[in-house]
Amino acid sequence: MPRQAFETLRYTAFSDLPDGGNPAGVVLGSSGLSDAEMLTIAAEIGYSETAFVDACPADADQLGTDTRNFAVRYFSPQIEVFSTKVIARRC
């Protein structure tokens, strides 16, 4: 079965040079990906962490009235990474 279309970005934090800092992958439009698919993609990207970002469904319990709510999940090449810092919430 062909994989759905999504956008994969590669960022370098803490540096203005592409080969410096802390690299991280970001996958936009990750709805519909299974945990196993996210793990495979994170392994293919090969960075210590890859963030999978998607908009919360319209019927999700929203915080406030801001419609720019996103779900973010983080995966290393081996496991899902759970953070104690809340920058987003799962829908």
Topology:
Layout: E1 7-13, E2 22-28, H1 35-45, E3 50-55, E4 70-75, E5 80-81
CATH superfamily: Diaminopimelate Epimerase, Chain A, domain 1
> What would you report as the Rg, rounded to the nearest angstrom?
14 Å
Could you give the order of strands across the largest sheet? 1-2-3-4-5
Q: Given this structure, which CATH class is correct? A: Alpha Beta
- Overall domain count: 1
Number of strands: 5
Instruction: State the end-to-end distance.
Output: 27 Å
Q: Would you identify the CATH architecture?
A: Roll
CATH topology: Diaminopimelate Epimerase, Chain A, domain 1
Per DSSP, what share of the residues sits in E-state strands of 2 or more residues? 25-35%
Order of helices and strands: EEHEEE
Q: Helical amount among residues, as a percent range?
A: 10-25%
Mean pLDDT: 78
Cα shape: globular
**How would a textbook summarize the main sheet?**
5 strands, mixed
Assign the structural class, choosing from mainly alpha, mainly beta, alpha/beta, alpha+beta, or little secondary structure. Answer: mainly beta
Describe the structure.
The protein starts with 6 loop residues before the first strand and ends in a 10-residue tail after the last strand. About 10% of the residues lie in helices and about 30% in strands. The protein is built from 1 helix and 5 strands; from the N terminus they run ββαβββ. The chain has a 5-stranded mixed sheet. It has one helix at about 35-45; strands at about 5-15, 20-30, 50-55, 70-75, 80. The protein has about 90 residues and is mainly beta. Strand 1 (about 5-15) and strand 2 form a beta hairpin.
